[in-house]
Design brief:
CATH topology of the largest domain: Na+/H+ antiporter like fold
Number of helices: 26
Oligomer: single chain
Shape: globular
Structural class: mainly alpha
Radius of gyration: 27 Å
Strand content: under 5%
Distance between the termini: 58 Å
Largest sheet: 6 strands, parallel
Number of strands: 6
């Protein structure tokens, strides 16, 4: 065993952990800590990595898993629901930022190719950072939060298209299209990508949902299959004869599973592994940066950072103002664009690998990234205070008196009912909840149950309610009632703890109806101030006692039997 590799990874992660602690105290995203770690152990000369190739490979796995999860969560239905605002803000911000960024970089004295890379890198905002900060603020379900998620998805799609062509140009000698003229080669790449995408979309609708329904019942099998599929397809797509990159293979692997009922569960399981490998990627990325002649980079970095921090939000506010959104909504959405994305780092790393841009350009973009990520994090955290400060000046952006907000229908889950567990006991409640004309959402762990409910057009999410990602999807903090038919006491106590944490923050506790297996568990739950405890044996006993009391000669049993059989048949057909 190569203990040097073990010690090297351990020391690198220890340094990253210490820096991340310091960065978190400043309320900054951990990505800054990982790049700084790379700078410390690389260009600043603390130590020299002896296993750079191994760490590079681990970093590639991180990027592949990152794009796998982007594909997994790329929900075109969500973009369609948000309508034109997602498309117009996403594409509009990219186009105007790229054009303005290109002219700025040209004025700063950069040649055409570096200017193109820099200007494109400035257009993408960080999905990971923005979603994390909005999640911590509990704003993901707000109007502006949904608009932000929509245009970030559009940006991610554009970023992946750019990476698709760059990744294709990195293919090796085995690519049979390599000898074609440039424009024909690009068309061939596009056709190949389209064929693979259509094939995978067909698999995602016809094959994977049934296939994954068997894996979904076992966390270990689901994790192994997901990793094997993501990395296996990425490796296949990177073969010289195929002509794409690991990154594109990872994205297409995620896209193929996006229609599965267990995609939430896959995201939850992959997330920790992705984060570990992404840490390695950004550390290795930091070791490769060149800040020689930092004095010459500082002025361009400050100019470009000012453009991202101020220009990007202004561009988005103009677009949203013309679309008819109020200045408050526009401002809160706009400040989320005031940083560059992890895709920007991937883009310049790939450009550097292809020989299109120098190490210095990569260093410049990274410096802009560090400045803008740090600045925008505070802008997002203190967006309300900033809005109050500039409220009068921002009124100018109300071009259409907030017409879009007056017309829009609020579809955010709030004051709703959450039903946890839709099998057996829970299945009898669904029709009643639907008839109540009350918004409700169903959470169940069984992919087959979820698939059946989805076919009936119920709002259902497949996953574990104790997972923070699932809690965000069902807006646990804003529910008016939570019904848990889960019979396990420990699971219900863990859920109760989550509800108590949310209630303490929002000073509002939902009504709670939990299930128990026996009287002892029911008493324990009542001591925890549960509003009502469902005890199937207790309820069943009362029901039978009432039947016997009212029907001494048991003449009605035949009719009751027939009614029961009809109910069972309705559930199974």
């Amino acid at each position: 065993m190569d203990f040097k590799l073990f010690y090297e990874i351990t020391s690198v992660l220890a340094i990253a952990g210490l820096i991340a602690m310091l960065v978190s105290m400043l309320k900054q995203p951990s990505i800054i800590a990982f790049i700084l770690t790379g700078l410390i152990i690389g260009p600043l000369g603390y130590t020299r990595l002896q296993h750079g190739g191994t760490l590079d490979a681990l970093g590639e796995i991180g990027i592949t898993l990152l794009l796998f999860m982007v594909g997994l969560e790329l929900d075109f239905k969500r973009i369609k629901q948000l309508g034109k605002v997602s498309l117009y803000t996403g594409l509009g911000q990219i186009i105007f930022t790229a054009i303005a960024g290109f002219f700025i970089t040209k004025l700063l004295g950069f040649s055409v190719i570096p200017s193109l890379y820099i200007s494109v890198a400035l257009t993408f905002s960080s999905t990971i950072i923005v979603v994390k900060l909005l999640s911590e603020k509990k704003d993901l379900q707000s109007l502006y939060g949904r608009i932000v998620v929509g245009f970030l998805m559009v940006q991610d799609f554009v970023a992946l298209t750019v990476l698709l062509f760059l990744g294709g140009s990195a293919s090796g000698q085995g690519d049979i299209f390599r000898s074609l003229p440039t424009w024909q080669y690009l068309i061939a790449m596009l056709v190949k990508a389209l064929i693979f995408t259509l094939l995978l979309l067909w698999l995602s609708k016809r094959v994977f949902p049934k296939f994954l329904s068997h894996f979904g019942k076992s966390n270990e099998l689901l994790l192994i299959f997901s990793l094997g599929w993501a990395l296996g397809l990425a490796a296949f797509m990177s073969l010289p004869a195929v002509g794409f990159s690991f990154e594109i293979g990872g994205f297409l692997a995620g896209l193929a599973l996006a229609n599965s009922q267990v995609h939430y569960e896959i995201s939850a399981q992959i997330k920790s592994l992705r984060d570990f490998f992404i840490i390695i990627f950004f550390i290795v990325f930091g070791t490769k940066l060149v800040f020689a002649g930092v004095g010459t980079l500082l002025f361009p970095a400050l100019v470009l950072s000012a453009f991202v921090l101020i220009g990007n939000p202004l561009i988005l506010m103009f677009i949203m103002g013309f679309l008819g959104y109020k200045p408050r909504t526009s401002f809160f959405a706009a400040v989320t664009t005031a940083q560059i994305s992890e895709f920007s780092f991937v883009l310049v790393a790939l450009g550097n690998r292809l020989g299109h841009i120098s190490n210095q350009i990569m260093g410049l973009v990274t410096l802009v990234g560090l400045i803008t990520i740090a600045g925008s994090s505070y802008m997002i955290i203190y967006s309300r205070q900033l809005y109050d400060l500039f409220k009068k000046s921002l009124a100018w952006f109300d071009f259409k008196n907030g017409s879009s907000e007056r017309k829009s229908k609020d579809t955010v889950l709030k004051n709703h009912i959450i039903l946890i567990g839709a099998h057996r006991l829970g299945s009898h409640l669904i029709e009643i909840l639907a008839n109540m004309q009350q918004p409700f959402v169903i959470v169940d762990f069984d992919p087959e149950v979820c698939a059946e409910l989805a076919r009936k057009d119920y709002n259902v999410i497949c996953g574990d309610i104790t997972d923070p990602y699932i809690q965000e999807q069902v807006n646990l903090a804003k529910a008016k009632m939570i019904i848990s038919t889960i019979p396990d006491l420990d699971d219900n106590l863990a859920l109760l703890n989550l509800v108590d944490i949310a209630a303490e923050k929002y000073r509002k506790k939902p009504k709670l109806i939990f299930a128990a297996q026996n009287e002892a568990e029911a008493k324990h739950l009542y001591e925890k101030e549960i509003d009502y405890v469902i005890s199937p044996h207790f309820i069943g006993g009362l029901h039978l006692a009432k039947i016997l009391e009212e029907d001494h000669s048991s003449k009605a049993l035949k009719k009751l039997r027939q009614n029961h059989l009809e109910m069972i048949d309705n559930k199974t057909t």
